[in-house]
Amino acid sequence: MRSVKQILFSGMLAVAITAVAPSVRAQIQTTGTLGSPSATTTISGKQLPPPDPKFGGVIKDIATDSKPYWPPTVVPPKGAPNVLLIMTDDQGYGVSSTFGGIIPTPAMDRLAKNGLRYTQFHSTALCSPTRAALITGRNHHSSGFGVISEQATGYPGYDSIIEKNCATIGTILQENGYATSWFGKNHNTPTYLYSLAGPFDQWPSGMGFQYFYGFMGGETNQWTPFLFRDHTPIFPSVGKPNYNLITDMADEAIKYMTELNAAAPEKPFFLYYVPGGTHAPHHPTSEWIAKMKGKFDMGWNEMREQIFANQKKLGVIPQNTQLTPWPDDLPKWDTLNPTQKKVYAHQAEIFGAYAAYTDNEIGRVIQAVEELGKLDNTLIIYISGDNGTSAEGSTVGTVFDLAPIQGIDMPVELQLKFYDVLGSDVTTPHMSVAWSWAFDTPFKWTKQVASFFGGTRQGTVISWPGHIKDVGGIRTQFHHIIDIVPTILEAAGVKAPEMVDGIKQKPIEGVSMAYTFDSANAKAPSKRDTQYFEMFGNRAIYHDGWVAATVPPQPPW
Fold it and tell me: Has this prediction a pTM greater than 0.90?
């Protein structure tokens, strides 16, 4: 007769990593007494969920002659890190101070000081597609999001459905024993499935995230958001005059981590943190607006030159980089009258306050990880923006962010009437395209334009204390949003599954970036040599340092 251990693992293989060398695979790891509730095991991950183990106890006619048996709890490999995956919204390469911007982002700066900056990391140029690619490790068309969910057409690659052959990182890590959660924006559910009646397979809970606290769709009012806790609609702003979702979201994430640590301190977490900042409407608090007073009075052209100089100083662009030309159809700052300058500068103050405020709250979440004693074994990935800065505010900006979508431009004189309340709960502002272009320095174009890096280049930082030794280093390898999933899997020692719920999986199209963690590979060739880009017909292809790109037939404003 086979032993209990043989019965338990019949037909099962496993790989694991050690805390010292996360890329080294080992055999199945078990702890506790097999058959008791204390027993744990890792799994191969080839099939998710794993096959149920056979009963390993004894059943006799007399109870006292029988022996109970509990299946072991699945846990990640020993030393598997916590993972905090952060991505902000609508921020181009020149927004954060970490990558040369004039808006202070100390939380990102802190991670860069203790980790690595990636200067050639890319998105798809648009919200939903980038987010689908991020959580699946497959290109946006492969994962059903050729466009945002609101523009889904019902055709393959454009139906806004993450099919069951594209299991998300949430599903993979949950089945391997992680606690999984999602805070903030969910732009990956078809709009016709927002109903409380379900089905919920395309909600975060159906994509492997055990806990969700956030909003559905592209944007929400940060002062009075329509939120969900899992599947239940909630309105936490009611009766709270100073409420803002950016702070509330951080509070909720901190509370979640604290309670998880109290209940199961040994259980690693995967926390997906995606605030609405800085997608319109731009809603910072008055305290943050005050901090930005006068910061943008120099105008978009001079700010662009300043960012460009900062980027060279930081080494996040090559020293021989040439600043791209200013577009002819956007006004230069010195051609504006005093009223225009006043209104436009204030638009940037609101945006800058929103970006700085968002980063500050992200910093609180990171600080909470440290205070829980978990920072040393937490892989933190912080991506500044899911695409370039948004040019959807029209050439003049707006007090009401949905007006430009309707083809309505708000005259500067009208906007001036809202000067003192801009960013408050009586406005939903967006800024002039000229600011958006400048915040994408040194590149051309903006969000929506996939054929130029102004739409796709995202400042990215990765920190993992003890595993990344070249702290403060810069990595110039070419990578893409689809490379995050395989990076996390390699760090965790978890394999991409071949089958999930009985469905054969599409191959993951990303490649791991973990090779860049080693200082010996600081200048190593990129493991991604080819990547396509496409959005609304704007398309490009990268291969071995060269880019072939189409010129947008019309601008996205």
Answer: yes
